[in-house]
Amino acid sequence: MTHNANWFLEYAWLVPLLPALSFVGILFFGKRMRYKGAELGIAAVSLSFLLAVCAGFAWIQHHDDVGYQAVQSSTQWLQSGGVEFGAGVLVDGLSVMMLLVVTIVSLLVHIYSTDYVGDDKRYTHFFAFLSLFTAAMLFFVLSDNILQMIVGWELVGVCSFVLIGHWWEEKPNSDAALKAFLTNRVGDVGLIIGTITLFFAAGGGNTFDTIKINEAIVQGEVGHTALVVASVCLMAAVMSKSGQFILHTWLPDAMAGPTPVSALIHAATMVVAGVFMIARLYPVFFEGMQIGGSSINLMATIGAVTLVFGGLLAFVQDDIKKVLAYSTVSQLGYMVMALGVGAWTAAVFHLFTHAFFKANLFLGSGSVAHAVHSFDMKKDMGGMRKFMPKTYVTFIIGSLALAGLFPLAGFWSKDEILVGTGGWGLFGGTGGNGAYTFHLLMGLFGAALTAAYMTRCVYLTFHGEFRGDRSHGDPHESGPRILVPLYILSGLAIVAGFVNLPAGFQLVGDSWTERFGHYVEPYKSSYFPAIDHATPSWSLAVVASVVALVGAGVAIYYYFVKVDRLADQTQQSLTELPDGLSKSNGLAGAGHKVLVNKYYLDHLYEGVIVAFTKVPLARAAYWVNQKVIDRTVDAAGETAVLVGRQVYDVVDQSVIDGFVDGSGRVSDATGEELRQINSGKVQNYAAILFAMAAVLAGTFLIIFAL
235 phi and psi, to 5 degrees? Predict the structure, then answer.
């Protein structure tokens, strides 16, 4: 760590500060500005992007000069129980990469939104929270301790709640916002428990500092049991925030929000927060789940299951945004699986490339939906390439990159993940940190699924005949504020993969290969575990490409050949074969039903758990409250009243009042007797005085005699 670094690294905290200030400015002054606050948000994010670019170049120079030394600055935030809690900034290759990704995607989303939500009645409110969302994610990735990360983590969650429910007047939208918020709270329980565990287990039991915690783990100062507990608990948080199976159900429903929000959430911000947290605290997971030298672990398996199960769900969606949402679930599964098999750089690199082509696809879907006023591919789209050729080209580029086809960005990052499993042994092994053969097979199957469902999506949206409403004329191409972001993201989807060409790539020199990993991965630093790096396997790259082409080929044959042929024969606009496999085969039909019902997870959560909580459990709790708790309280009150009456009748009236009344009567009688003595005659007083003196003298004589 060093404090003598380039100005842009020392003052990286300005990157999240600018959009945070724009949030305040838009909220208070936006409605009085010429463009209702949008110009302030765009200006702030533009400056943040420029600072992030400068920080990127500064990090490259810093790395070349002194090696991988993080730049960390911190100040005391609060003090409690003798423990000081800091707030600071941690700048290294990982955080600089995230600054670039978040700011560029956010800037393009801001520009895109000026057209997409231009007529929205809460236009200013939308841009205010778009800026806060960006600031929260930037704050999160720069945090130098876990406590501060939790603050950013929750800020991102709150902003997503607001933006998903932006059109809250419609109940499905507000329900989706609540579902996202509550599902993430489930994982947050694990986040808090995991953080507490690390606080007491690492760094002498008094630090949340990520560098110190990671260093303590790397040096073997933390017990394995504590790391198992911490990694499993933190994994629960990752499952909810980054949409891992079975806590992924909120993520497709989040499509209820405006499309620019969907692009920002699903591409560069909220859903990758969990992946970033694993990457930042990687020693916790690497040691806790014993990733090195293994063939299976919890994280890798959750990721593998997520990538396949999420991909299968994309096949039965009619809403174009939900296809992309389940695609995001699947791609997040790739990232988590990569981290689970020890392919740290491959996972982070896929996060980097995925941000560009997935943002491109989401904004492209919004461009189409903007033209037809619907997201339903089967009912309201079809043949859109004729009306929107520019959007079509950008969507095709994004789809090819997502499918992992050469030479687009997705090919390079996805191939690195498959290589990193270490499960390929043909024509030269891949090395890596273990033999994760099962996960390699799941990754290959996921590649075929991705190519197939995106082929289906492209066909239903852009090919065939237009099935939408022509009463207001034909759809038309979007304007420049929508198309320009699509052009930029398409270009990045093409070239982003070249920043991490595999070692030994014959077309360039060695100095141009693995640049991303060289500057981003904290390899051989004091706070990163010693992981093994897989070597490239061209045979695996060829096989993975063939698998993806086969998946696309099957879908092309089904839709572009069989469905189109039947449509020509019947002169109908078809989207599926009427006698397809799901209708002619019982087993396929049952599988299709399971997919349509999303593995019945929503039924489990809403129809069983929530329904049980709202009705039987609530009624049981009410009965216990009325019959047990309230009855106990009532009985205690009734008993107190009864005891009070007895005390009043017996003790107070008979004993205490009787004693007082008796004392009064005795005093009265005594007074009457004394009154007779007190007659006013001196001789009587003298007699009494001499009598008392005699008694007193007798008493003294007796005492002295004894």
Answer: -65, -35
Contacts 24+ apart (CB under 8 A), 163-167: 163/126, 163/129, 163/130, 163/133, 163/257, 163/258, 163/261, 163/265, 164/254, 164/256, 164/257, 164/261, 164/265, 165/256, 165/257, 166/122, 166/125, 166/126, 166/257, 166/258, 166/261, 167/256, 167/257, 167/258
What pairs with residue 209 in β-bridges? 145
Asked if 400 contacts 356 with a C-beta cutoff of 8 angstroms, the reply is no
Ordered DSSP codes for 549-563: HHHHHHHHIIIIIII
Considering the entire predicted model, what is its pTM? 0.88
pLDDT at 676: 63
Measured CA to CA, the distance from residue 280 to residue 140 in angstroms comes to 11
- Taking only Cα atoms into account, the Rg of the chain, rounded to an integer number of angstroms, comes to 37
Kindly report the backbone phi and psi dihedral angles of residue 101, in degrees, each rounded to the nearest multiple of 5, phi listed first: -65, -50
Residues (pLDDT < 70) of the chain are: 1-4, 203-205, 425-430, 505-507, 509, 652, 670-685, 687, 704-706
Distance CA 285, CA 495 (A): 32
230 close to 194: Cβ distance less than 8 angstroms: yes
Here the tokens at position 691 are 């009598």
**Nearest alpha carbon to residue 577 among 569, 568, 567:** 567
CB 22 within 8 A of CB 43: yes
Q: What distance lies between CA 85 and its chain's CA centroid?
A: 24
Neighbouring-strand partners of residue 143:
89
Q: Domain ranges in the chain? A: 1-144, 289-573, 579-661, 676-705
1-144 architecture in CATH?
A: Up-down Bundle (1.20)
Tokens 């959009």 label which residue?
Answer: 19
Which amino acid type is present at position 611?
Answer: A
Task: Check the CA dihedral 117-120-124-126 and report its sign.
Answer: negative
pLDDT for residue 514: 87
Whether the Cβ atoms of residue 257 and residue 166 lie closer than 8 Å to each other? yes
Question: Token digits for 151?
Answer: 């603050």
